Amino acid sequence: MEYRRMGRSGLQLSVLSFGSWVSFHQQIHDNTADELMGVAYDNGINFFDNAEGYARGESERMMGRVLKGKNWERSCYVLSSKVFFGSRENNRPNQHGLSRKHIVEACHEALGRLQTDYLDIYFCHRPDPSVPIEEVVWTMHHLIAQGKVLYWGTSMWSAAEIMEAHRVAQQYNLIGPVVEQPQYNMFERYKMEMDYLPVFRNVGLGTTIWSPLAAGFLTGKYLNGLPEGSRLSMDEYGWLRDRWLQEEKIGKLRKLKTLADNMGVALPSLAIAWTISNPNTTTAILGATRKEQLIQNLEALSVLPKLTDDWKQQIENILTNKPEMNLA
Amino acid sequence: MEYRRMGRSGLQLSVLSFGSWVSFHQQIHDNTADELMGVAYDNGINFFDNAEGYARGESERMMGRVLKGKNWERSCYVLSSKVFFGSRENNRPNQHGLSRKHIVEACHEALGRLQTDYLDIYFCHRPDPSVPIEEVVWTMHHLIAQGKVLYWGTSMWSAAEIMEAHRVAQQYNLIGPVVEQPQYNMFERYKMEMDYLPVFRNVGLGTTIWSPLAAGFLTGKYLNGLPEGSRLSMDEYGWLRDRWLQEEKIGKLRKLKTLADNMGVALPSLAIAWTISNPNTTTAILGATRKEQLIQNLEALSVLPKLTDDWKQQIENILTNKPEMNLA
Amino acid sequence: MEYRRMGRSGLQLSVLSFGSWVSFHQQIHDNTADELMGVAYDNGINFFDNAEGYARGESERMMGRVLKGKNWERSCYVLSSKVFFGSRENNRPNQHGLSRKHIVEACHEALGRLQTDYLDIYFCHRPDPSVPIEEVVWTMHHLIAQGKVLYWGTSMWSAAEIMEAHRVAQQYNLIGPVVEQPQYNMFERYKMEMDYLPVFRNVGLGTTIWSPLAAGFLTGKYLNGLPEGSRLSMDEYGWLRDRWLQEEKIGKLRKLKTLADNMGVALPSLAIAWTISNPNTTTAILGATRKEQLIQNLEALSVLPKLTDDWKQQIENILTNKPEMNLA
Amino acid sequence: MEYRRMGRSGLQLSVLSFGSWVSFHQQIHDNTADELMGVAYDNGINFFDNAEGYARGESERMMGRVLKGKNWERSCYVLSSKVFFGSRENNRPNQHGLSRKHIVEACHEALGRLQTDYLDIYFCHRPDPSVPIEEVVWTMHHLIAQGKVLYWGTSMWSAAEIMEAHRVAQQYNLIGPVVEQPQYNMFERYKMEMDYLPVFRNVGLGTTIWSPLAAGFLTGKYLNGLPEGSRLSMDEYGWLRDRWLQEEKIGKLRKLKTLADNMGVALPSLAIAWTISNPNTTTAILGATRKEQLIQNLEALSVLPKLTDDWKQQIENILTNKPEMNLA
């Protein structure tokens, strides 16, 4: 396993990591979770990602139970949570969003569910324009000062929103965000390859990538229609279906499959390897529901060194979606 | 129930809230308090206001006992206290005012009486010119840093005093006050409609209004003399009596009663609705002693949408006390 | 002549000073202006007040011509101007208000009209809510840095607006305002005796009082109707007439006249002496149109020591308008 | 003419303004420039935009000559320049970009060419990653402190780059950028309608729009092929041609023409009115080469009030290019 520093912070994350997002509680149960996390850990993964909003806190509870059952030293792994969506079926005012009241209360609740004394990383899961950024930065700073959080970051924020947090951190001499959790894959490139460039350059930013496989699309499993039980066949993910199952993307996907065959590697491994081949990627989060799937995805590590400039250019020729700036 | 952000903070308060001021302990007992807070909560009220100075701490003790008996999640409601007047019959030096010693000790005592781990809002109940403002701001800041308080504010401070707290917060990079608890009603308008305007505009300020009914005067119950047992008939409120029972105000009150009749609403509901129709009002604190009274006051919510610009102008024509600035 | 430090600044102003407001250009001409300024200077007055808005720049031009004719050393007197109202009959956008563009251009124009290299004091003549206070404070700071202005202040700002300027000056390490030019006299007391108290106490504030005679009302000349040619008989001052010629004020005025007679002093001298007896007053600006009038007003200096606590209490008993704070 | 505050600054710009970009020197001569600027000024335009890079300084020289011939007060108009591209055919090192040396020297040269003492607005014409942003912000700040520039801004910077300038301004207590000059029109919407949103909200940003007519495309003149002598027929603008002359855009353009006919307005006026109907637009820069053309474009002012929500929705239905954020 390769480990990378998370942006300009001192924290090191395995370049592949494990997330429980929609799978924990909804698709798998404690035994499978225990097995998957064991495989991940044994393969060198040290970052386990979670959020209050995943299955209304049940994802954190399940991960907490699994971790309690392992004899891993707390210093061996990095644990995250995220605040924004709340953990109740019907959140009342102040039970979601980024007010100081909710961030503090959500942190305490997450610590309880995960059965730990501190979160290594605490993410603001979305921007919240109804709360002054000063309040957010102060609150995260105080949680770090109190030892309940070690690093804080953002998820799905724009570069300008991240820089605004840094401006305010600068103003009050506070600790700013050091990591962002964006979506990034062959078909979703704007933020990582354009928007965040000044952030990488000016203040530094680690990235914990979600959806390196574009919600499963890049596994190739949709090349011949929707498999029964796949995530895209579930009703609540209709919006994902609409986005990806377009002819143009299917066409590119076929070419990528051929290229992967020519390279002698599996398409999903190639897609993940492509994501972590971006030097601004700290880690790509894997979200398997079966052991075999996880092991296959870990193959990306061995694909990475094969991904030469030449192959990357061929991929670029297929994708033709590289974000470009027009300053003419 | 409508919820409003408290100034520029991220905290949301119900536009009507519940205060225990003179009623708890002095006029009502645990059973009634329990009933009243239940009615308030069930109607969507999420802010419960208190102070060390209310009935020398007994008001907080009673609210603490009631809350302990409820199964409400702590994140569902917002709890306040205030520091300044002390909680003893004969306060010795350092047992009142805004010294660091008293603020810290009063906070711990209030947490004990309210049986909670933190106050959502902590108010400086009055300005204290004998304490440097630096000491006050630093102390409040540290209580927030320690997690014992989430937001701090002032009560009965002038706009210039609030701005001085912001200047000092700016100088030392501290968290400044975000809310003020002023008196505001149809007959007491200067602070809300004139003095605080630059504060609202420049740094933001939530307001938790006390006395929206002008100590009961706007209920209309004094239109025919002082009822036995009413607050204004009690000896210690002689100063209130002097202020309100003037012929001019009685004359305006009669016209307001007629206008309320024409609108088809109760006068107290109209008076409360008028208070929260000011967009700079975050919440108006109700202080009922009987369930029926509280339910009637909650009617203000349904009066609010009826309070059109036209009706407001007619009220203005009766009051003729709108504060105006002369910059000629 | 007594000299007082202007607030916490090091600048010393004579406790009586000379302003050209409406008189220069509109009511008097160069010869009279020359005579009046000579009398003022010979009696120890060292502060001459002006503004771009007085007679559209003509008041400054006249004062500039008079000063050029005197052989006074520049260091012997203090010269002010004010920016806000513009100096043209029809100001275009950016030719009035407090934008950086107008402040800078107005300063250069005032220096030209007054024929001087720097203004000792430059006032913002009114608050301008359409311009961020940061822009105003930065611009005044830069004019001081460039040597074109020595001190800056405000006129007709509220205490909270002044404190906001201090907060911003604190934030950016800039020079804040040190003086305010408010109206202050026996019938207009709120700002000096209530609103500014926290400003005097916390950051210091000099005050250059205008209208110590309440636009002439306190001379007593209106006790028997409006004299031909007096300022209140001119049409454009109808708003002043309305304000002052009320029966209640006339009643108090009669009693003040009797009291002045009993003290053996002239009523206008008493009124001016009363204004400068407030220790928070730096100077009261006199605005005479005739030499005799100016000499009479200067009598206030000899009345001042006669104004004992006992006489002041008797005046208070007549006025019964002392602003009070209700913190009960 | 309508005037708008430039972001949160106090400066007011006419909502339509006049730019010399490619036209001055290259397409028109002094007499025409004089006539055009006269028409603009007489119609209330108060902002004249320029840059060192426009015709290698000749555009500024021409504007300087025209302004010298007019008897307009300097405070009546707002003059800009931009630094980055240099003004020489072959710029040597330090004769372009954003180093302190080039910014300072370029400013002095622009003042000379424009024959003025100060620029009202000075833009960084492009971002320059080879210069530390600290050096840029310090240099602009010092030009303001010296009185050579009143406001500074950017052109073609990303939101994150602008926020980085604000972070550095915050760090060193400097004056940050207050205005950006982006391209914005019906076919180029991302920056104004998505990227800058957090900047508008958090620190404020005025915008001086260039290319409201999409390099002439939105005049409709290319609906029937390239007219001889039009800008798109010139060889050096091949890149513009490629971008606009696509079938899809032509299709939308035809529908917009029909809609304009239905509204009873000219297409170019409609396109300009649409641009200034965005409340985040401060001004749209017009770049006419003939008097009739300028007068026609000024018609946008009378089209603006006709652009109701209903018409705007119909335009949206034709364009179907509104930038949207996916936070799902």
TrEMBL record, chains A, B, C, D:
GO molecular function: oxidoreductase activity
Source species, domain of life: Bacteria
Residue span, NADP-dependent oxidoreductase domain: 16-317
Protein name: Putative voltage-gated potassium channel
Gene3D superfamilies: NADP-dependent oxidoreductase domain
Organism in which the protein naturally occurs: Flavihumibacter petaseus NBRC 106054
One example of a Gene Ontology biological process annotation: monoatomic ion transmembrane transport
Tagged with keyword Oxidoreductase: yes
Alphabetical UniProt keywords: Ion channel, Ion transport, NADP, Oxidoreductase, Transport
Keyword Ion transport attached: yes
Family: Belongs to the shaker potassium channel beta subunit family.
